[in-house]
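User: Could you check the structure of this?
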Amino acid sequence: MSEPALATLATSAALGTATATTALMPGIDGNALVGAVAGAALFVTSSRDLPLIRRVIYLVISTVVGYLAAPEVLAHLPLQSTALAAFLAGALVVTLTMQLIERAKTFDLSTLFRKGD
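Assistant: Sure, the predicted structure tokens are below.
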């Protein structure tokens, strides 16, 4: 069986090649796409406790959402580069979403309807 880090590296390299190819298409912001892939790769390589298939899925999700969220991040943070905005979004999107899901699982609706304790 191959080393998980090697498989992650191979997946990142394949996604990087796809990114380079996609960046040549008109209408695609290459800077944002490279930033999103870098942010997603940072998240995936730091998540060694997750199974490989989950890391690959999170890599794709982080890349897509990081790319799509770059304009929104630029609108709310004092940044000039779409690459940096996409990097931040790609690195944080899955982490924040997983935290929200965990909190939603333990959220108690009755606390909203309690009158003055």
